[in-house]
Structure formats: C-alpha cells, structure tokens
C-alpha cells in the first residue's frame, strides 16, 4: 500500500486573478450522464466483436452513438477557419526617452519570493518592486518610483541583473504577474502587489512552484497545488467534470490501439510501453479542451495544445520512464550550438576580471583572491579540483547525473581528480559534455559565493562563437510574424491572415510554398550568392519532387551566406502579401536557439484505480506518496515523486525549462495498476502551434 504525505499550502497567496482565463466547464455541447436513455454503443459493437464489447462494457458507461458522432462531425472544417488558431498577442514593453530613473538592487542578494509576498503591502511605501525571471522562485528587490515611462527600463535592468543574456533582452521584455497575466502599466504592477516576473523575447510562461504545497486559486474554481519543484509538477483540481471524463473515454475508445514508442524513424511496439492509446478525432470536445488547457498554461493560443490522447492501463500494463518531448526535427545539427571548453574559459576570464576589480573590497573572501582555490582560473589545478569536486557532490545529490544516465561520468571525474589529472580534465570533459555541464558548473561556482557576490557575478553575455543558424532565424521570424499579425490584425492584408493563403506557418506545406516562391521570384544569381550552386541545385530538385519542406530547412543549413538567404526568404513573403511596414522583419544580431517541441503536459485522471497506476517522476527529490509497494516490473515506481491517480484530478508538469531547454529531470513513467484499470488523457502542449510543429517530425 502507499501512504500519501500531507502538503500544507503556503500562507502567502499572490493577488487574486483579475480576469477569467480558464474556459467554463459548462461550454461543452454534449453532457454525458449515467442515466442517458439512448441506446448503448455496445449494442452496435457487439454485432462485430462481442468479446471486445463485453470487456469494454465492464469498464465504462458510454454515451449514445449519436452524441459522439454529432460532437465529432460538428467540429469538422478548416483548421485555420476555427478560433483555435487565434493568438492572444504578446505585447512587449516599449522604451521611453522620458525615463531618467536609475534602478538599484536593494540588499544586493537573491531573495525568496515568499519573503516578498509577506512584504508586498509595504512595497509601495518603500519605493520597491520585487522581480524574478520566468518560472523562478527567487529574485531581487529594486527601487522604482512608480512611473509608466520606466517599465521597460525597469524590466530590462532586472533581466540583466538576474542573468538574462543581453542579446535576448534587446529583443523585447515583458512583465507578468504571479498568475502569468501581462503588466502594461504602473497601475498593473501596483495591482499585482509590486511582484512580477520578467520574460524576454518570446519566452513561454512557466508557473512558478513557489514552495511545495503552495496553492494558486484560479478562475472557475480551478486550483493548482505545487507537488514537485524539480521537475516542476502541479496537482490540478476543478479543471474538468465527470461528464467530460466519460465523453473523453467514449470518443477515444473506438480508436484504442497498442501503444508504441519511437525508435529512430520508426514507431514500434515495446515492452517499455504496454498500455493502449488513441488520439481523439477533432471534435467540439477536443477543441474545448485545447482552449481550456492553453488557458490554464497561459499559452498565447489554443493551437499550442494538441488534441487529447486517451490512455488505458489494464492491470500490469505500464510505461517506463521517458520524456514527452520529441527528437530533433530538422536539418540543424545537434552540435551546432554546443558549448565547449573555450566557452567555459571565456566565462572564467570574465568572472576573474569582475573579481579583480573588487580586490580592495573586504567583503570578498580570501578564497576568491587571485591564486586561491575558488578564484576562477582554468589553468589552476587547485581551482579545477575544488570546482569539480563540489560539482559532483552537488549534482549527485540532485540526481543530475542519474537523470542523464551518466553516473559513469561522475565516476570518471572523481577518478581523474584522484589520479592528479586536474590540469587536463576540463578540456576532455567539456569536449564531450560542454552543453550539459557548463551551465551547471557555473551555477555550482556561484552557489558557493556570498549572496551579494552572486548577484554581482551573475550578469554575463558570452562571446558568440558561431553565427545564428539559418533555421534558428527562420523559426523566430515565423514566431514574430504570427504574433505581429495578431497585434496588427486591422491592417494585415487578407492573404496574410489565418485564413489567407500566405499565413505564416511552421509546417512543411508552408515551407514548400515559400521555397517554390523563392525559386520563382529570386534570380539564380542572387540565390547562388546566398546558397552556393550545389545547394541551389539541391533545392530545385527537392521542390520539383514536392519535398520543399525538408529542402527549405536544408537550404537554410547549407547556405554559404546564411543571413542573405534568410533575407531573401523573408522578403519574398513580404512581397507576396504586400506587407505593411509593421510586418517587415529585421534580422536580429542574436537569437537564442529554439525548436518547436512539447513544453508542458496536462494529464487528466479519468478514473480511480484500486491500487497502483501512479505517475512517477523517478529523479525528483520531492515526495507526495511514500511506502509504495513493488509495482511489478517497474522498479522506478518505488523512488521519486509519485502522484496517485485520483479521478477528476490532473497533473500539470513541465518538460522544458523556463529557458525552453529540454528538462531531463522531467522523465516520468506510468506505473502499472495492480488492481483495476486506469483511464487517463494527455493534453500535450507545445511552445508553438502543435499541428504545424508535429509535421516537422515527419519530414
């Protein structure tokens, strides 16, 4: 048996949500009840498969055949004619020449948001605001005199002080309340209790956990309660009804098939996943849940949510630990942006220069003096030994290595240090593991500093070793353009609107259209100068073969002058739609690498389970349920954070970090029911249009 641990809600709550964003539970056109008098679907199924019908009938009570059919058929039509693709535009704060305030961090130390929540009533009198980065639970107090003209400057200063890349800050900043709602004025910030999160560029909102047991009270009686911080997991109550649960089962059950996993480019059955799944067809129900899910996660469009997936686990069926994110979908090499030893050495030189400027400060401890063990110098074996020793200790305790299945690297580091190889270990280690380990190494170093020095040394903008990749530029242009069309809809040409032929999309069909237009309207001379002759020949052949989706991405990768080719693609679109100035794009100097992918998952528990059936996060150090008995062949169910399947509850968990990197700590599994059957439903939410993004993985 399992024992559930109590989780007391934190006493300090964010300000009440000022507007309803979660859709009403009463909007579905077909409510299902156990007393539905219409003929059962099993009477029809039984004529074809009596055995299957009896089995299913023991598990759930369905609605009528007519209800399901009407619900599905009434939702048919063009995807881009529906409101699902509507965007709630991101509006960046605008700089003002009227702001002459200087912003100073008070105390100069990172502080828990719970401290700020307790102090919120007095922040106006003190002339302070408390700002954090996206999805983070600690931040800085900054001085602010309450001017609308200074919101952009305030947000920008806070973002840099909190460690945001200045290149990203230059692309736009926003302030959001603790409930993920936009702050556009000084009055908004005051109404939010002078506590806010700073987001840069097109960052996707992440609900901050605040503390285990913290409860957010949202519209329509929905509650989010934090049950795990790493990975970030919430328990959701009040999000859906029993009638909706039964309707999900009814619409999905006819499509159930043995679950499969992706292996290379193939989808195969595996003993790692023995459940049954079905993607629900497009219907009023699935569209309603797209809207509700996206609103709950504060996504800018319902299109970011996929159609629902139904899952059924019979006794003993399971899904071993896995990630919900998809693999690399495009021609951008996985190693293009890899961090290396040179990047770490560049950071160490920067940190050393900052410390050198504070040599006369008595607050700097001796261990941070030049030549001492904690002074950042990659040529000093004592520094390397001290840093890597602390790194292994800290990351082992947080399951960093375990989540990556890299315990052997931990052992290797310790062995190399023991054998006196501190002078050579870093280049060898970071040649293989730079991207994964360098950010963690820097955080390990910062965490050992006095709090005030952590703030002083956190701001850092690295040297760009490689130019922005063409695919990265392309993805951001599409994101920017979709958002800008939503902002400027009144003046957008009809061809560029969601129903128009040239509405920007991430999918391969739009890429084929773009590639075709580029070849038709740009001279070969210009294309050879941007692409090179071989890449142009390859692009033409692919377009002739109707493979322009893959070919455009490959051309963006192969181009000998990346920026020139991206500009030709962008200008071709602008010419085709007769774009007004507000839809014309300037290539930014820096864009953070980004790919469309699943971002956050909402799992709905449609039934109770007599025993077992937990959702387990084996690498979490948080605990909700303890003393779980052995779950058959799935030993990971006995460790980590286990969320029991409680009917009409849901789990919301993030599979990417607030900076939109895949969170390897989010590996999770579906434990087998030991008694009974588990019904559930996944609402996979992406950081972009889900339907468009999925096509990139089928190229």
Automatic annotation (TrEMBL):
Q: Where is the composition biased (Basic and acidic residues)?
A: 18-29
All copies of the Prolyl 4-hydroxylase alpha subunit domain together span 498-686
Q: Does the keyword Chloroplast apply?
A: no
Gene3D superfamilies, per this entry? q2cbj1_9rhob like domain
The GO molecular function terms of this record are: iron ion binding; L-ascorbic acid binding; procollagen-proline 4-dioxygenase activity
Domain of life of the native organism: Eukaryota
Cofactor(s) for this UniProt protein:
L-ascorbate
Q: Which PANTHER family match?
A: PROLYL 4-HYDROXYLASE ALPHA SUBUNIT, PROLYL 4-HYDROXYLASE ALPHA SUBUNIT DOMAIN-CONTAINING PROTEIN
- Spell out the protein name for this chain: Aste57867_16114 protein
UniProt source species = Aphanomyces stellatus
């Amino acid at each position: 048996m399992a024992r559930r641990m109590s989780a007391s809600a934190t006493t300090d709550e964010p300000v009440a949500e000022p507007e309803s964003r979660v859709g009403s539970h009463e909007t579905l056109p077909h409510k299902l009840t156990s007393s539905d008098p219409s003929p059962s679907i099993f009477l029809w199924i039984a004529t074809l498969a009596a055995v299957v019908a009896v089995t299913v009938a023991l598990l759930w009570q369905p609605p009528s055949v007519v209800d399901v059919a009407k619900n599905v058929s009434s939702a048919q039509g063009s995807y881009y004619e529906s409101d699902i693709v509507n965007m709630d535009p991101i509006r960046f704060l605008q700089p003002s020449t009227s702001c002459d305030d200087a912003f100073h961090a008070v105390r100069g130390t990172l502080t828990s948001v719970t401290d700020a929540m307790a102090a919120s009533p007095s922040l106006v009198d003190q002339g302070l605001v408390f700002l954090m980065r996206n999805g983070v639970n600690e931040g800085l107090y900054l001085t602010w005199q309450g001017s609308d003209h200074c919101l952009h400057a305030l947000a920008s200063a806070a973002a840099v002080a909190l460690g945001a890349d200045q290149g990203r800050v230059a692309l736009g900043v926003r302030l959001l309340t603790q409930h993920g709602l936009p702050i556009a004025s000084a009055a908004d910030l005051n109404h939010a209790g002078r506590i806010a999160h700073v987001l840069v560029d097109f960052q996707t909102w992440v609900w901050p956990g605040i503390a285990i047991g913290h409860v957010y009270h949202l519209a329509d009686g929905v509650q989010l309660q934090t049950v795990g911080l790493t990975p970030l997991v919430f328990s959701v109550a009040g999000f859906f009804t029993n009638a909706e649960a039964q309707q999900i089962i009814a619409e999905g059950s006819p499509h159930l098939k043995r679950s499969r996993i992706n292996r290379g480019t193939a989808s195969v059955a595996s003993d790692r996943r023995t459940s049954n799944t079905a993607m629900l067809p497009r219907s009023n129900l699935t569209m309603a849940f797209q809207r509700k899910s996206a609103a709950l996660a504060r996504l800018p469009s319902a299109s970011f949510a996929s159609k629902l997936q139904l899952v059924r686990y019979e006794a003993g069926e399971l899904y071993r630990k896995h990630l919900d994110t998809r693999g690399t979908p495009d021609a951008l090499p996985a190693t293009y942006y890899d961090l290396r030893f040179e990047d770490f050495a560049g950071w160490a030189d920067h940190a050393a220069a900052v410390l050198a400027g504070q040599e006369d400060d008595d607050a700097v401890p001796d261990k941070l003096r030049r030549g001492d063990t904690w002074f950042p110098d990659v040529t000093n074996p004592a520094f390397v030994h001290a840093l890597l020793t602390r790194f292994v200790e800290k990351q082992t305790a947080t399951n960093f290595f375990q989540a990556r299945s890299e315990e052997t690297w931990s052992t290797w580091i310790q062995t190399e240090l023991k054998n006196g190889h501190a002078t050579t270990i870093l280049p060898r280690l970071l040649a293989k593991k730079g991207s994964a380990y360098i950010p963690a190494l820097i955080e390990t170093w910062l965490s050992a500093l006095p709090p005030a020095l952590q703030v002083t040394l956190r701001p850092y903008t690295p040297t760009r070793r490689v130019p922005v990749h063409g695919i990265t530029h392309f993805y951001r242009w599409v994101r920017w353009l979709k958002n800008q069309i939503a902002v400027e809809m009144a003046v957008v040409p009809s061809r560029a609107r969601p129903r128009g032929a040239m509405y920007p999309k991430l999918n391969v069909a739009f890429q084929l259209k773009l590639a075709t237009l580029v070849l038709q309207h740009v001279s070969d001379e210009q294309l050879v100068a941007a692409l090179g002759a071989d890449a142009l020949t390859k692009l033409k052949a692919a377009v002739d073969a109707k493979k322009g989706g893959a070919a455009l991405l490959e051309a963006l990768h192969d181009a000998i002058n990346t920026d020139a080719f991206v500009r030709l693609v962008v200008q071709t679109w602008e010419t085709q739609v007769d774009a007004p100035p507000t839809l014309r794009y300037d290539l930014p100097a820096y864009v953070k690498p980004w790919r469309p992918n699943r971002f956050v998952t909402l799992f709905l528990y449609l039934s109770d389970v007599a025993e077992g059936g937990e959702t387990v996060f084996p690498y979490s150090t948080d605990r909700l349920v303890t003393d779980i008995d052995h779950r058959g062949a799935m030993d990971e169910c006995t460790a980590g954070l286990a969320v029991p399947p409680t009917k009409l509850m849901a789990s919301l968990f993030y599979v990417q970090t607030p900076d939109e990197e895949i969170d390897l700590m989010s590996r999770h599994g579906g434990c087998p029911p030991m008694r009974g059957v588990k019904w559930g439903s996944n609402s996979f939410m992406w950081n972009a249009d889900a339907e468009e993004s999925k096509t990139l993985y089928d190229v």
